[in-house]
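note to self: the first set is below, dont mix up w the second
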Amino acid sequence: MQLSSTWSRARVGVVAVLCGLAMVVSACGTGSSASNSSKKLVYFLAPNTTPTRYIQQDGPDFAKALAKLDPNIEVKFVNAGGSSDTQLAQANSAIAAGAKALVVVAADPNTSAGLLAAAQQANVPVIGYENPPINGPMYAQVIFDPNAVGVQQATYFAQQVKAGTFGPGPVQVARLYGNKGDVYTTQMLAGQNQVLDPLIQDGSINVVCEDYVKDWAPDNAQTATDQCLTKTQNQVDAFLGFYDGITAGTIAALKSKSLSIPVYGGQNPELTGLQYMLTGDQQDDVLKAFSVEADAAAKITLAAIQGNPPPADLVKDTVDNGAAQIPTANLPSTHIHLEAGVDPGTVVQKAVDLGIFTWAEICTGPAAATATCKAKVG
């Protein structure tokens, strides 16, 4: 089984902690090593290198949180490279290695039922994480409430429509969704539509393009944006996305054509989303405190290993995943947006306050030359 080797985030402290705990990650410089047979194994199955958060943030945070709860648990990390077949093989290998629990961000929820069936047959609990598997039984899942995220994005966008930001209507809007069939996509879209449908029906908004973005990938979003611009002959008032990778793809397409069209619908966030807020290319974002989700997942995982019900203080809802009602911890998120006359650094500071990124990390790439970054890091 191929262990993840992409622990690229420059958080030396996190890496040092993981190395000190003898975690099996290549960033420690030790390569793979035999597991301590006295420890209980938990596997964290990441979907891909995009979004980057699962490798750079959630994974290390989960390992730290679980180690505090029970130092006799060893966490191993694997990365599916975007392939459900690979992820299924990784899950089977983890089960064969004696895993006591699997924490899974699905590589493709639409084809994840086999993984859940294999875990059920082996009596290994699965904890779904953020973009969970579907169409099968799970012990529980933890997620930043996708319906609420969609509502947050659409509410802000609707406010701009009603305020006349785009001029007299109807506002010509292009909408780019996430990977088709994902729990997150389906529920986020429901949340957005709850707010936007009345404006579409009364003619305030005209949706000129809409498309799903396979794997939430920036390059696929860029292609979809290019196709929309060609279809409409660049007659688009605004793009509304689902996630920072998607907005980054849209912004890349617009820049390649020297077009200035506002982009809304950031979420997660990625570094690019916060950087583009500083440059003014992206109007808003939904922040998720990754460490909070990782901590909740650690508590749920420990309960699963101990054979206890999911913690009632965290797991208060259920979600139909197509095969079962899954006990779910729905976490709250924070919406931020640019405001006229307000330093964008004041807005992005909220992401720093939540511990998602540091200013040193944000002030790279497209944001490095901004006034905010010159003031923050020189």
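second set (the one i keep forgetting abt)
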Amino acid sequence: MFLLDRINYWASNTPNSTAIKFANEQITFSSLQGNVQNTIALLENTYDIKSGDRVAYLGLNHPHMLYLVFACSHLGAIFTPFNTRLANDEYRYLCKNAEPKVCFFDVNFETVANKLDGESCAFVPKNNLNREASNNSLPDISTDAHAPLLLVYTSGTTGTPKGVLLSNAAVAANIENGNAFYDFKPDQNVLITLPLFHVGGLCILLLPALTHGATIHLHSKFDPSEAIRCLNEDKITTTILVPAQMAAMMAQESWATAVMSSMKYVVVGSSLIPMAQIKTWHSKNIPVSQIYGSTETGPTAIGLHTDHAFLKEGSAGQAAKLCSVEIRHPDHSKCKTGENGDIWVKGPNILSGYWRNQGETDLVLQDGWYNTGDIGHMDEDGFYWIVDRSKDVIISGGENIYPAEIETVALQHPAVQAIAVVGKVDPHWGETPVAAIELAQNSALNEQELREFLTDKIAKYKQPKSMMIFDSLPRNGMGKIEKSTLREIINS
């Protein structure tokens, strides 16, 4: 079933049930169906959106994003949500790379839209999606299941973001993977506070729950005290969080007395989860279900079923319903039980490829298998344990930061001879980026000057939080900077 078929089913069978709660608005499945149909008509008739066209969105969480996802699926178009935390130059790159025919934006990003409008696409206020289409009948389109539906950008390992293409079939497979873990029903209430420009916010719980008749409580952005209140008072049965969100909630005074009596389990992902956080939820008798994956896997590849949460604390769980997982040596031979190796994933949920980047696609996709670059092992019971994320990636507050992006830009500063960005352990964010710099001869540079140089070029959350100057950065015999040594120095 395509996405719109699933919404049509619930609109026919439970038309007055609430599909989405957002701010003071309650959207029934019947209204959701009507809003999606109107969006389809607007995209086709007003913005001339055809199969293969990209439709971008820049804004905080809003039901409009979901209307666009369903509409693009029906039209064969590609929904392209932009990260809301980027710098102007990064948005400029995304527009030129994705070449969306239109980008809808909310009022928070009017300044960005005004600067970029017309450069690579037309920027249109999202309120235009509220207009009634002149012709609300659905176009007769036969969408290819393997046609791309989502173009989601990840931080780049080579200095620029990579666009991950996920097909209609991949999104449908991820829905089945999610529902196999959580068995969503119409009487369930799911809180979503993660940004929908990430597949973690859009695909792990939201789409599986919504397409199985549950009610989505959608927040425009995360607020720790409001999240606790919602979990306590709104009969929420589950939510998805990243460790930084958990830490922020646990720092609130209201956390200690929070009962959350309707909560059946909490889902957590994006980075290694501190055991103390898991045990804190377990002390409230709320199982912690970890989900492992990446944008490239849709993202649900491995998950810990709630039945196993207390028995396998800290485990990522077992392979998702439609996934195969292998732990391999560098020569691609399989590792033994308990032996650490590279995590490879295969299934209908994985990416079709990187947008306009066949070289990177060929590096990660081999014989239908996706090389995650992460390290883990499988125990004797068939449960997977993640030992380390990709060795260079920095995960700060649930956001992936690839040092190559920062390094590529920072090297343009005349005072920077060489640079390596590594993660420093942080009790709140998980990690923060630190710049280790080797200065050019007779040059000087301080942290403020580096930050000013990176402004408008690199998103603020990616910018190094501190800087260390080295006479000579540690290098191996081939002259490559040894980041493992730098990590030890910076975290000592």
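remember for set 2: The chain has a mean pLDDT of 92.
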